[in-house]
Design brief:
about 350 residues, 7-stranded mixed β-sheet, 11 helices, binds zinc ion
Length: about 350
Amino acid sequence: MKAVYIKSQGGVEVFTYGELPEPTIGPTEISVRVGACALNRLDVYTRMGVRGTKREFKEPHILGGDVAGDVVEVGKDVVGIKEGDRVVLNPRLTCGQCHYCLAGDDEFCRRAGMIGSSANGGYAEYVKAPGVNAVPLPASLSYAEAAAMPTVFMPMWSMLLRRGQLKPWETALVLSASSGVGTAAIQVAKNVIGARIIATTSTAEKAQKAKELGADEVIIYTQEDIEQRVKELTKGEGVDVVVDHVGSDFWEKAFASLRIGGRYGICGVTTGYRAQLQMGSLFTRQVTVFGVFMGNKEDLRQIVELAGRGIIKGVVHQTFPLSEAARAHQVMESLSFFGKLVLVP
Ligand SMILES: [Zn+2]
């Protein structure tokens, strides 16, 4: 099969577009013909060997965790998925046997991995996955739209619906609205929960797109002070929930924007992972800071259900042929996009 793979870590020159054997499946696995594979920051980190991803490869490695496509082969012990089904894959690999998995909290699995990191991913014509990781797609969803969803929407199910408990009468501050996570956060906060949203972004053009997605107010952080604008927009109260996936660059201003009793959720640290925490304010202001990684398997089924009804959608900025994975990575590193970048074999 055609695939884009790496044998060592570094710049985009480590990518090879060539032939690799098709994956062979076990009894609980399926093989999927890739219809689309969305890029994530993790792909860039794993390619570069930064942020804890440094490693040696024994075999050529294929990146890409967010995959949609059609099922071409089904292991004999798989139930509920059949050949020919259009599916989207949950990239999170879990053991199904630890006490968290058994309790249904598979987001805390003790032996978790990720398609595209600990196993070969979707920068290829075919990818294999456990059958339990596949969710059937409604006909109304394209492969590109579906592939654009799992890694950005699943953390929002954990962060906004479960841990953050955002309510319709509350206000959320969504940092960096133009990223995939930002576009998911706005839609979940607005279309699923019905909350008010203050988003931040870098340009007027991105601000307009954030408003079209559902943001009530947008702060252009290159021109305005986030903390001061939030205070103005909330009559001095601050926001109930912060959605942070960018890390240290905005921590201080965003943390100061929380109301008393507010909740600060973190699901990524793209700008840096160290920050100073004023511990006194944790108890005097009674705020909660928490992290989420992905979500659990049931979350993706719910996400696909709502996407099928048109309530939320994967936001695709641009698609690229598989052979142009290097160019797609360069666009991701440039930060000049709104939504997801998607490879199509
Ligand atoms: Zn487990």
